[in-house]
Design goal:
- This protein is an alpha+beta fold.
- 46% of the residues lie in helices and 12% in strands.
- A six-stranded mixed beta sheet has the order 1-6-3-4-2-5, with helices on both faces. A five-stranded antiparallel beta sheet has the order 17-18-19-21-20.
- β13 (558-561) and β14 form a beta hairpin.
- α11 runs parallel beside α12 (260-266), α15 (317-334) packs across α18 and α25 (543-552) crosses α28.
- It is flat.
- The termini are far apart.
């Protein structure tokens, strides 16, 4: 059977090239094929610009009439088609030559065929710059490009390849690429017609041969390349295998990946028949953590998962050995008690990690950001490494490191280490409106690790209390580290107070951060504080009562924005169900003093329930401050001043608005004056006033809208009465001492009554005379 050496141009001018329908989609342009694509383009570029002959090996196919049907070589032929098309466009070759490219036909999908035809036939403008997908955008913005083509994987891959070719060849100058690729025949391949006499290829055999490339999975190819990489870079290095003795690094990896480690991953396969994805995910996890550990100034997208990057990472021997040793350690846990069982690994992690905050389980560490799934961190990594939270990745890596450093297979010591890291991670945060969001970023892992590695001791609490720790440049705040040091001194006592600390850390709204209680100063109260907090913040206690009791103990809310940054006044947050963390983990010393005052006052109360004790604290303040008619009085006297959000804009004490949103621009949402809301609630008659009519949007004060056309607005100077003032008779004006205020009236409260009482009385008097309705 004869072979012949041909260039792409020679093949396409002699035959029509038809990619048959049974062929797979074009793959070289796929995003994940970046490395393979780059290497191929580099070879093509080197040949065309350096006049070096490039042989692309065999292209198998069969010839019927004047059509060549490729069996092997589809990917190379498609790339060469795109390269010829690009060079023809770049060098503005004649239409006669360009028309030959119409003889390249894709039959895998009609859309692919139409796209290739449009590329050659329609107008395409060559971008004047590279990168940023400019060529892709130039094509997809054309009138002839159909949006539906975006779903064709071959077209998507072709667009990526076109952009890559443009980025590679655009700046080539003083060289006729067209002449080199056409006349110079610098790029060629061997063609073999498998339909020729002596090798009559049947359709059945054709299909079987076409499927042969599916035998090796992507991970199997990766594994083979990784073994070769180890052989190249660690030729003389050996490890001791318990069965094989001292063997090379590559031999160690080859043996383990086919036996022990495979057994470990196989236990997690579920109903799948392969474990390639799980093993690949673990490789990605280790590579990612090692990369960011070593590159403290890296950006998040600097880790790209390419094999070239893997080579750079694992060329560092400590990283390669960490990969080996981590899998050996996990396998040791897996085979605990001599039997290989996934449950062994799951039970190991479950012995010190919980996904729920449990105040009464001090031997477990709650990962507050993990709300569902498994506590088996190994399983989480190999199933969902791409979407797993950075904090969980850091904890898992740290656990593995700890186990290797301390050479243990149990949870002895690791619980305290994980708890400490959990707390430091929780404290690395920033406030966004009324909530705290994590400030942990995986690309900053190298900075965190500078401290975390120092803490990986047999007794982390002893290390915290006695060792000199270098926290410079770790991005962990000194205050959060000092908080852990103070707790460590108490935890080393191993007494009831120690247990109280661990339990308090698990309290739902503390999430590991208990600095607000000043634990070192109040050691002798922590046991009682633990009990009191769980009683007060029980879900059965209304938030309004909790807030009132806090206010009675000096709490003035936490300032979210200063007055200068919010039109109409500053914003203040007082807490609500599901989001007390912003209050109870606040770092303001005044907030701490208020909470401690509440807890101490609560301990002195004699009520028979948490609610009654809190109400006594509220009543005591009102009795002690009979002449106080500031905002505190109204908040403590009228529960309606609280709402579902308890977030307020506060120009002054009488023009407050209850905000309906916790966004960056809360005034866009509807809001209402708590004075208006409270009066509506007390009137409790929608034929007189409906609270839903009293909300407003954007800035300004909401008014109490009466059904008779009169409105009442709460201002610092009193209630401004406006609207249909003809409904007011002299008796009402006289009895309530209404004062003229421009075209309106002003209702002021006397010394004997508050602003809510006087408004309710005025409305009831107004409606007692039916002629005023």
């Amino acid at each position: 059977m004869q072979t012949s050496n041909k260039s792409f141009w020679e093949l396409i001018t002699e035959y029509k090239i038809n990619i048959p329908i049974i062929q797979r989609d074009y793959a070289q342009g796929r995003e994940e094929e970046f490395e393979k694509r780059s290497k191929f383009l580099n070879s093509l570029y080197k040949s065309l610009t350096g006049t070096e002959i490039l042989d692309l090996d065999f292209v198998y196919g069969r010839i019927k009439g004047n059509i060549f049907y490729p069996i092997d070589g589809q990917q190379r032929l498609t790339t060469l088609f795109l390269l010829h098309w690009y060079i023809a466009l770049k060098e503005n070759v004649g239409e006669t030559q360009k028309q030959y490219l119409l003889r390249f036909v894709y039959d895998t999908r009609i859309t692919s065929r139409e796209f290739c035809k449009s590329l050659v036939s329609e107008n395409v403008d060559l971008p004047t710059d590279v990168g940023n997908n400019k060529f892709i955008d130039a094509i997809t913005d054309k009138y002839w490009f159909r949006n539906s083509w975006q779903t064709d994987p071959t077209i998507k891959a072709m667009l990526i390849m076109i952009q890559a070719i443009h980025d590679k060849f655009y700046h080539t100058q003083n060289i006729s690429l067209w002449n080199n690729i056409i006349e110079g025949r610098l790029i060629s391949f061997q063609t073999l017609d498998l339909g020729a006499k002596g090798f009559e290829l049947t359709d059945e055999l054709y299909i079987k041969m076409n499927a042969r490339g599916k035998q090796l999975t992507p991970f199997e190819n990766f594994k083979a390349n990784f073994i070769q990489f180890i052989e190249r870079n660690f030729k003389d290095r050996t490890l001791k295998h318990p069965v094989k003795g001292f063997i090379s690094y590559s031999g160690y990896f080859s043996y383990k990946i086919e036996k022990e480690w495979t057994d470990l991953f196989w236990a997690y396969r579920g109903d799948k028949s392969t474990i390639d994805a799980e093993i690949a995910n673990y490789f990605e996890f280790i590579a990612q953590m090692c990369f960011f550990r070593s590159n403290r100034n890296a950006r998040a997208d600097d880790f790209n998962k390419s094999f070239t990057q893997y080579e750079t990472i694992f060329k560092q021997e400590e990283n390669l050995l960490f990969l080996f040793n981590s899998l050996d350690k996990l396998y040791a846990i897996y085979t605990d008690s001599g039997a290989g069982d996934k449950g062994n690994v799951s039970r190991f992690f479950d012995s010190f990690i919980t996904l729920q905050p449990l105040e009464d389980v001090s031997e477990k560490v709650a990962l507050f950001w993990v709300l569902s799934g498994s506590s088996d961190l190994f399983e989480r990594m190999i199933k969902n490494v791409g979407s797993e939270d950075a904090r969980t990745k850091i904890i898992f890596y740290s656990v593995i490191h700890y186990l290797l450093k301390q050479d243990i297979s149990t949870n002895r010591g690791v619980t305290g280490y994980v708890r400490t890291l959990r707390n430091l991670i929780q404290a690395t945060r920033q406030r966004n409106e009324t909530k705290y969001n994590t400030n942990i970023r995986l690309n900053n892992f190298g900075s965190y690790w500078m401290l975390f590695e120092q803490l990986a001791s047999a007794d982390v609490y002893y290390t915290l209390a006695h060792a000199t720790l270098d926290n410079k440049g770790t991005q962990i705040s000194d205050s959060s580290l000092n908080n852990e040091k103070q707790k460590a001194e108490i935890l080393l006592l191993h007494n009831d107070t120690s247990e109280a600390i661990l339990s308090l850390e698990g309290f739902t709204y503390f999430e590991g951060l208990i600095h607000i209680l000043k634990p070192k100063r109040h050691q002798n109260k922590l046991i009682n504080y633990r009990r009191v907090l769980t009683e007060i913040w029980d879900h059965s206690i209304p938030d309004s009562i909790k807030i009132q009791a806090l206010i009675a103990c000096g709490f003035e809310g936490i300032e979210i924005r200063e007055k200068t940054s919010m039109k109409g006044g500053g914003t203040y947050y007082f807490g609500k169900a599901g989001n007390w963390t912003a209050i109870l983990t606040n770092e303001d010393v005044e907030v701490s003093n208020c909470l401690i005052s509440l807890l101490d006052s609560y301990l002195l109360q004699n009520g028979d329930s948490a609610k009654s004790k809190l109400q006594s604290i509220i009543s005591d303040w009102l009795k002690a401050n009979p002449n106080d008619k500031t905002w505190k009085y109204y908040f403590l006297s009228y529960p309606a001043f609280m709402s579902g959000r308890n977030y307020y804009v506060w120009p002054n004490d009488f023009e407050i608005s209850i905000l309906g949103s916790e966004s960056s621009n809360p005034l866009v949402a509807y809001h209402i004056s708590p004075y208006v809301r409270t009066v509506c609630k007390l009137i409790n008659d929608t034929t007189i006033c409906d609270v839903h009519d009293c909300y407003i949007q954007y800035s300004g004060n909401s008014s109490l809208m009466l059904k008779n056309g009169i409105s009442m607005t709460c201002l610092s100077k009193g209630w401004l009465i406006s609207g249909e003032l003809d409904k007011l008779n002299n008796e009402i004006i006289s009895q309530h001492g209404l004062l003229h205020d421009g075209d309106n009236y002003l209702l002021k409260e006397p010394d004997t009554k508050d602003r809510i009482q006087i408004a309710v009385e005025f409305i009831r008097l107004l409606y007692s005379n039916t002629t005023n309705v």
